[in-house]
Amino acid sequence: QVQLVESGGGLVQAGGSLRVSCTASRDGFSIDFMGWYRQAPGKQRELVARMSSAGDTNYADSVKGRFTISRDNAKNTVYLQMNSLKPEDTAVYYCNTRTLVPPRDYWGQGTQVTVSS
Q: In which residue ranges of the chain is pLDDT below 70?
């Protein structure tokens, strides 16, 4: 079983920056996708950003140009640099890993990101 440990969340004012990180207990080279989801109050969990093992990235439209995902397979770690934060970015951010064979998702406990206006 894969365990994911997130860190870096916190409280920041609008326009500020945060960097969250997630380290997996699994070999990073074997994880097809690593990324971040978030869930705001009253909303469903949504994809924020993810990166494939080949380096391909996907971002939610709402964060394009502001957030940057990076991945260090040797360290089994994925990062999300969040700049120009907005109050609407406030959510619990969950680390996610996905393998295709076998198809399986693992989730972190979540880290709270709060952006004040």
A: none
